[in-house]
Amino acid sequence: MIDIHMIILLTGGALVALALAFIVYAKRKIDEANLIDRDARHRLKNAKFEMETEKREALLKVKDEIHKKRSEFELEKKRERIELDRLQSKINTKYEALEKKEEGLDLLKRELQQKERTFSTLEDQLRASEARLKSLYAELITKLERVSSMSREEAKALLISTLEAEVRHENQKWIQKTEEEARERAKEKATSIVVTAMQRYTSEQVAQHASSIVHLPNDEMKGRIIGKEGRNIKSLEMATGMEFVIGETPELITISGFNPVRREVARRTLEALISDGRINPTRIEETVGRIEKEIEEIIEGYGKDVTLEYNLQGIHPEIVTLLGKLYFRTSFSQNVLIHSKEVGMFSRMIAEELGLDGALALRAGLLHDIGKAVTAEVEGPHAMIGGDIAKRCGEDPIVVNAIAAHHEEVPFTSVYAPIVVVADIISASRPGARRETLTAYIKRLEKLEEIAHSFDGIKRAYALQAGREIRIIVEESVLDDAASTLLASAIARKVQEDMNFPGQIKVNVIRETRTIEYAK
């Protein structure tokens, strides 16, 4: 029994302990639940506060944005109102102006209507006057026909023929007078332009005349140049392509050849050999090779100097080289490069006086004799050769024609071609530009007179002014005035075909008839 009671007590105690533990556990859970509830309520409260705060901030932002948009809208509205007021004012001004114009048009309309009525009245009066004039004219014609014993058509024909004769005569006199005046004005203008160009140009250097004569220090040097069995002079001639003429003139050797550059190479080579003193075939070949390189450099230097001096743009390298070669070319002892520079300057001056492109004229004048640089290698007239070279090197067609036509072998295609012709004549014929030997001068005069006497009807012929004029006196009984004019043209053409001369030659044909009687 005791054991049962003990078990019951222990069981009851255990149950009580369990109950107490459950109560404690339940209380703890309730406290935790209350704590979680308080925390949740606190979080909810915070969340609500944050939401309210964000709501207020968002509301403030919206209000600010609305206020900003409203201000911008008000400002834009104000601007538009100002612009509308301005446009309205402008429209009102234009409207007022239109009203004034309309009033003016109405006034003009009334004036025109008044003038139209006046014109209508005048027109009616003119019709009446015209009718009266026609009647009077018919009566006058009838009276004139009766008085003159001629019909109206006959009188008209006579009057017309008389008027035609008078008009033809007056017209012929007027044309002749106009031509003479135009010719005089053109002559004066051309003379003024040419003289102005010549006065403006001043040559800064003396033209150098190329020489093909080498002076020796003594006659013994001739033997050394000739060498044993003539091997030295043969080597010189083979290396340079020139002929060395050793005559009886003491201390002098003449170099002969058509190529001016090769002639210069030969001259410099001979002078270098004489200065060095060693003359043999090997030394000759070495010296010729060295001099050729020097001449090439000199040629390039002269060509580049010209292009820089005249600021030539886009010029072909071949033309630069040919310009340099012209320095060693002469025409009637005038240096061709310096002559070409003078022609370029004169061409530019004349073109500028005429209001043309001075740079283009300068280029044409400077290159006009470019063909002379290769005449020793290419056959044909140097003007045509130069034109072909310029065309191949891409020069302007105006420049090409001016080069090819400066001796009038091809027709002119622009005004620049005759400008180059005139500039060429000025440079060639100015005092001191060219010179020739006495023998050549006398031969030229004799040739001129010979050509003149080759024609029929010539009484006498005289070459004047250093061969720049041929004065011819014809038989007045054989040739009339018209035949004399044709004779002058024929002689001029023959002179051009048979002679080479600088500048131009004037052919002056004189026909004179004199009647002399004596009173006794």
Key attributes of the depicted protein:
520 residues, mainly alpha, three-stranded antiparallel beta sheet, 70% helix, flat
Write the layout of secondary structure elements.
Layout lengths: L1 H147 L3 H49 L12 E3 L4 H7 L4 H10 L2 E3 L6 E5 L3 H17 L4 H29 L7 H9 L4 E2 L2 E2 H18 L4 H9 L15 H11 L4 H8 L11 H14 L8 H16 L4 E7 L4 E6 L6 H18 L7 E5 L10
Parallel strand pairs: 7-8
Antiparallel strand pairs: 1-3, 2-3, 4-5, 6-7
Helix pairs in contact: 2-8, 4-6, 5-6, 6-7, 8-9, 8-12, 9-11, 9-12, 10-11, 11-12
Outline the structure in words:
It contains 14 helices and eight strands. It is mainly alpha-helical. The strands form three sheets. Strands 1-3-2 form a three-stranded antiparallel sheet, with helices on one face. The radius of gyration is 57 Å and the shape is flat. The N and C termini lie far apart (225 Å). Mean pLDDT is 80; it is low at 204-211.
